[in-house]
Design goal:
The structure holds 2 protein chains of 2 kinds. Chain A is an alpha/beta fold. Chain A has 15 helices and 8 strands. In chain A, helix 5 packs across helix 8, helix 6 crosses helix 10 and helix 13 crosses helix 14. In chain B, 47% of the residues are buried. The chains are: A alpha/beta, B alpha/beta.
């Protein structure tokens, strides 16, 4: 599901776009959703927000794929009804989950086909923006910014160069490449509460590099990684702000 | 005899390992060094993605026709005078090797590093029968002296500093406490040479079996495999049935991938290709060469499309070095012979699933393991498959560790997520609870666990949909 010619072309042509902000953004950090919509409109897309809930990843990752299937069906159905050209998520992890929907319906050819149709049109925000033609981010933010690669976006969708490229174009941003930028933050979904001490220890390895780099803002494309990293930073009283990529790229444009 | 930690108690083992600062420091430094070496070695191989695709195709082909190639190997090995034995499980393998050792009249056996012999607990079998088994790989010997199981599948004592090893040697073999690395290895060499000379049998594993030649290939850096396989009169190799390759030519890609992935070397110092016992007095090599082919659960993995790829593993250890979990807790916490990501995949398929039910969950699913795997095993996909097996079982098999409460909670949450209206109602209630009873929620799971070292997230005052509606108003 990395960026083949077909996928980049689909993104480049997409006009009507469904934005699925993910459940974490919806409930904990809704501003990220507004920022993402602002950016999509900036590249000339019409943004639609469907009646969506959750992509079902927590169930798949905990060993209960049966509970994820109805959620996947609901999301597929919702996107079909909207009849959009693309589905964009401000999350590499949830976008990757949707690209895995066909495997979830391995034994159900009809749903498998519908899942494939959606998977081909599903994009992580930064990749979509770059493939849709964004060369300069519209926001403005005076800060030293470091980037944390979300594992699923990086390793399953190949999101790596796009967010860096966009971050460097934000007026005022001094981009700092962190050591171990691609190291896991230790969130891991239910892993974070099943093995909390281990989850936090993995975060500390990452945050040691964050502190060493003396950045002011730690940005990522996944709100769930940031929830975890922010929780740890606050607990340790480290004054580094966490921001979602969309918030940095559109900073100052919405409120 | 060195014992493993209880596999069922991974969370407790991991917590204990996190308290061991010295081990964490040594492990982190060593894992970083090995990963750095791997990266450097791969940087000289721009085609490595193609190599690993080729290697995986060879493995997939071989595994699909394993019956054919095993028989071909047996025929060709017999023709060269190698005796081939088949072991269904660990008990059969132990009995077979013990029988051969007794036949040879051995009281001392030298061993080169072999995870497969660890898997069947061969040292224990031999020692029970009064046969001394001495590990001759330096790291493995250190672990044996310390009465510990290997910490890593390639670097058994990766977690020990030079200082710790000096102390251990001082206590066990009387070297000075301040001995440097050179003095320590010289002392080890001195002790081990005597063992090589006196041993009646040598025991090894093998990295590859070659069907068309009836040969086995062993890679190493210390020269101890050379001595183990050539000095004692009788040699026994215990090898998993998945180590087979059809042709000598197939070694090409594997000999490029394995040393680079494992230790960051272009090639290992020694590569021993054994084809039959010595034919004439004065030749190098053992008088008798035995190969014990071990199944021990492997044919079960072979039976399913999804699990078959577990058998493609060439035990390079690269996935351990990059794993954020392994880097923190190390090998012993897993409580299994094979630790790390590949261990979390292989172990639950080798032992009864209920015994290893914790291991598939000992991962953040970050996928770094899949990225570095020289045979492109989709470890995260296998972990997800095993997680499902553990929680739900499959077909006729019962779930290994059903968690009734967790399942119930998941079912409830999934129910409230199934429709947008339900979802909004549920979240409105949650928001109300968060506002008035947040203090209570933070004392209950899962926030209770979350708050171990992290501040708890709060629900936003208004959800995205509300903000979006306001924004869209003319």
């Amino acid at each position: 599901m990395k960026g083949g010619a077909d996928r980049t072309a689909t993104a480049a042509r997409a006009k009507r776009v469904a934005l699925f902000v993910t459940c974490v953004v919806d409930q904990c950090w809704p501003g990220i959703g507004i920022a993402a919509a602002t950016l999509l409109e900036h590249v000339g897309c019409e943004v639609e927000v469907g009646e969506t809930t959750c992509c079902g990843q927590p169930f798949c990752n905990s060993g209960y794929p049966a509970f994820a299937r109805p959620l996947a069906k609901a999301l597929i159905g919702c996107c079909e009804r909207m009849g959009v050209d693309a589905l964009v998520l401000p999350s590499g992890s949830c976008a990757a989950q949707i690209t895995h929907y066909p495997q979830l319906f391995a034994h159900d050819p009809a749903w498998r086909q519908r899942a494939e149709h959606l998977a081909e049109r599903t994009f992580e925000l930064s990749q979509f923006l770059v493939w849709r033609g964004m060369t300069k981010a519209p926001g403005r933010l005076q800060a030293r910014v470091g980037w944390h690669d979300g594992c699923h976006g990086l390793r399953e969708l190949g999101v790596g160069q796009e967010p860096r490229q966009l971050l460097r174009t934000v007026a005022g941003v001094e981009f700092v490449e962190l050591r171990a930028a691609d190291a896991c933050c230790g969130f891991g979904g239910t892993f974070a509460v099943k093995l909390p001490e281990l989850s936090v220890a993995i975060a500390d390895h990452k945050l040691a590099q964050v502190e060493a780099a003396r950045i002011e803002v730690l940005a990522s494309g996944d709100a769930s990684c940031l929830l975890h990293l922010r929780g740890r930073l606050e607990h340790r009283a480290v004054s580094v702000r966490t921001m979602h990529l969309a918030e940095v790229l559109a900073h100052g444009l919405y409120g | 005899m060195a014992e493993h930690l209880p596999m069922q108690q991974f969370p407790g083992n991991a917590r204990a390992a996190l308290q061991n600062d010295a081990q964490r420091r040594a492990l982190r430094a060593a894992a970083d060094v090995f990963d750095e070496r791997r990266r450097t070695a791969m940087a000289t191989a721009p085609d490595w993605q193609l190599w690993r695709q080729t290697a995986r195709e060879v493995k997939d082909h071989t595994l699909l026709h394993l019956d054919h190639y095993l028989e071909q190997f047996e025929r060709n090995a017999l023709q060269r005078g190698t005796r081939v034995h088949w072991a269904r499980d660990a008990a059969e393998a132990g009995a077979l090797v013990l029988g051969l050792a007794r036949q040879a009249g051995a009281t001392l056996c030298v061993k080169s590093k072999s995870m497969t012999t660890e898997e069947v607990r061969l040292n224990e079998v031999l020692e029970h029968a009064g046969i001394e088994a001495v590990e001759t790989d330096l790291g493995e010997w250190i672990q044996q002296l310390a009465d510990e199981v290997p910490f890593h599948i390639v670097v058994p004592a990766i977690h020990k500093s030079r200082g710790q090893i000096a102390t251990l040697f001082a206590e066990k073999i009387g070297t000075p406490r301040d001995a440097d690395a050179e003095a320590l290895t010289a002392a080890a060499r001195d002790r081990l040479r005597a063992k090589f000379a006196a041993a009646g049998i040598g025991i090894s594993g093998a990295n590859f079996l070659i069907a068309e030649a009836g040969s086995l290939l062993i890679l190493e850096n210390e020269g101890n495999v050379r001595l183990t396989t050539s000095v004692p009169r009788v040699h026994i190799a215990l090898v998993g049935i998945e180590k087979l390759l059809p042709r000598v030519a197939d070694l090409d890609v594997f000999l490029r991938l394995l040393p680079r992935s494992g230790t960051g070397q272009m090639m290992t110092t020694y590569q021993s290709l054994l084809t039959g016992p010595k034919e004439r007095a004065g030749d190098e090599g053992p008088e008798e060469l035995h190969v014990v082919l071990l199944d021990n659960g492997r044919s079960r993995m072979l039976a399913q499309d999804i699990t078959r790829q577990s058998l493609a593993c060439i035990r390079c250890g690269a996935c351990l070095n990059v794993c954020p979990v392994y880097q923190q807790v190390g090998g012993h916490a897993y409580g299994s012979v094979y630790p790390g990501p590949i261990g979390a995949v292989v172990t639950p398929q080798l032992v009864p699933l209920a015994n290893a039910a914790q291991l598939p969950f000992a991962s953040t699913l970050c996928g770094a393991c899949r990225d570095v795997c020289p045979v492109a095993i989709d470890i995260p996909a296998l972990l997800l498959h095993l997680r499902q097996q553990v929680r739900e079982g499959s077909g006729t098999e019962r779930a290994a560790a059903p968690r009734w409460f967790e399942r119930f909670a998941m079912r409830v949450v999934a129910f409230w997520l199934r429709g947008p209206r339900r979802y909004r109602v549920a979240l409105a209630v949650a928001r109300w609870c968060d506002r008035w009873f947040g203090w209570l929620l933070r004392w209950l799971p899962p926030l209770r666990q979350w708050r171990k070292g992290r501040t708890a997230p709060r629900l936003a005052a208004r959800d995205f949909r509300t903000l979006w509606r306001e924004r869209s108003k003319p």
